[in-house]
Amino acid sequence: MTQPDDIDEAPMGASVSTRRTSKLAIVGAGAVGSTMAYAALMRGAARSVALYDINKAKVEAEALDLGHGIQFMPMAEVVGSDDIAVCADADVVMFTAGAKQKPGQTRLDLAEATISLVRKVLPLVTQVAPNAVYVMVTNPVDVVTYAALKISGLPPTQLFGSGTVLDSSRLRYLIAQHTGVAVQNVHAYIAGEHGDSELPLWSSASIGAVPVLEWQGVDGASPMTGDVRDKIAREVVESAYRIIEGKGATNYAVALAGSRIIEAVLKDERRILPISSLLNGYYGIDDVCLSVPTIVGAGGVGDRLAVPMSDDELAGLRASADAVRSVARQFGF
User: Fold this and answer.
1) Does 53 show up as a binding residue in the annotation?
2) Nearest Cα to 135, choosing from 287, 279, 257?
3) If you count Cβ atoms within 10 Å of the first and of the last residue's Cβ in the chain, which end, N or C, has fewer?
4) Catalytic residue chosen out of the listed positions 45, 87, 90, 194
C-alpha cells in the first residue's frame, strides 16, 4: 500500500506528518521586526515564525516572550536565533534590520548604513532561503530595495519593498476621519517614494463609489477641497516624523501593513498593494524602485496597474523617481 506524499512511514498507531507549513522569517528583532512577528502571529498569517538578529539575548528573549502567548493566538511556532540557519526554507523573508531613524533625520539619510548591512546579511539569507519571496522594510525602502536586487541577484518579482502600503493606510485613515465614513470604504493610494516626494493619487481615489474629487460631504462633513487634500497629504508625509519624535520609532502600523503583505503572498491573494518594485516602462519610468498599485501573490510581484493620473500626478511620480534614482546612484547603484 502506497503512503500519501505527506506522510512518512511510521510504527503502528503513529503517523508523522511532514506536510510543509508556511514559514515566515524576519531579519531584525528590533521594534519593527518583533512587532511584525507579533502581528503576523495574531493574524495567523504563518504557521512558523523565525526571528533572526545578531543580538542573541535580544532575539531569544523576543521569541520566548511571543511563544508564551501562543495559547491566545492561532496555533503557530516561533523561534529566535543569532544563527542565520533559523531562516532556512522560509516562504517569506521580511527584512527589517537597519539603522534606526533619529528625530529630524530623513529616510534617505539612513541609506549608507543600511545598504552596508544589507550587503553583509542578505546574501547569507538567500543561501538558506533561496526560494523565499523577500520583502524589504528597512528605510529608505526604495533605495534599499534597488540595492538589494543588485546585491542579491534575485529576480525583480521575488524581491520588493513594503513601499507605500503604510502611507496609503495613513491616507485612507485621514480621509475617513475628515469625511466621517469607515476607513474600509475609502480607496486611495500613495505612490512614488516612501518618503518626502511621495504623492496621493487623488484622481483615482474614491469613497464608496464616489470619486474623492466629487465628494460633497454627508452629515455635515465638508467636501474634500484642494486645501483639505493638501493638508492631508502633508500630514501623511509628516506623521512618521511626529511619531519618531514622540516615541522613538514607528512599529505598530508598519507591522500590520507588513503582515498584510505576508498574507497576500502566503495565501496567494493577488491583492492590489502599493509595494515598491523595479519599474521599467511604467508611464515612461525606468530603472528605479518605486511604489505603484501592484498585484501581489505567491510569486511576489505581479502586474502593475496603469492607474489613471492627472498631468500633475504623473509629473510628481516622475520627480519622485528622479529623487530616488539620484540617491541610488550616489551609492554606486
Assistant:
1) yes
2) 257
3) N
4) 194
Specify whether 224 is located in the same domain as 184.
Answer: yes
Evaluated on CA atoms 213, 216, 217, 222, the torsion sign reads: positive
What are the tens digits of pLDDT across the range 267-279?
999 999 999 999 9
Q: 323 with 194, same domain?
A: yes
| Shared-domain flag, residues 174 and 320 | yes
Query: Same domain, yes or no, for 100 and 208?
Result: no
Amino acid identity of 205? A
- Given a contact cutoff of 8 angstroms between Cβ atoms, the answer to whether 296 and 273 are in contact is yes
Q: How far is it, in rounded angstroms, from Cα 43 to Cα 243?
A: 24
Query: Do the annotations mark residue 5 as ligand-binding?
Result: no
Exposure on the CB side of residue 315, measured as CA atoms within 13 A: 3
Does 320 fall in a domain?
Answer: yes
Q: Is the pLDDT of residue 40 over 80?
A: yes
Enclosing domain of residue 212: 165-330
Alpha carbon 197 to its chain's center: 18
The domain that holds 325 is classified in CATH as 3.90.110.10
For the chain, the helix, strand and coil percentages under 3-state DSSP, each to the nearest 5? 45, 20, 35
* Dihedral over alpha carbons 194, 199, 200, 201 (to 10 degrees): -110
For the question of whether the overall pTM of this predicted structure is more than 0.70, the answer is yes
Q: Is residue 251 marked as binding?
A: no
Q: How far is residue 302's CA from residue 305's CA, in Å, rounded to a whole number?
A: 10
CA dist., res. 47 & res. 21, Å (int)? 6
**Mean pLDDT for all residues in the chain:** 91
Identify whether 194 is a catalytic site residue.
yes
Task: Establish whether 185 is an annotated binding residue.
Answer: no
- Cβ contact 32:137 at 8 Å: yes
Cβ atoms 193, 323 nearer than 8 A: yes
Average pLDDT over residues 200-226: 90
Q: Which of 145, 161, 177 is where one domain is finished?
A: 161
Cell numbers placing 327: 540617491
Do 144 and 136 touch, CB atoms closer than 8 A? yes
In a domain, 273, yes or no: yes
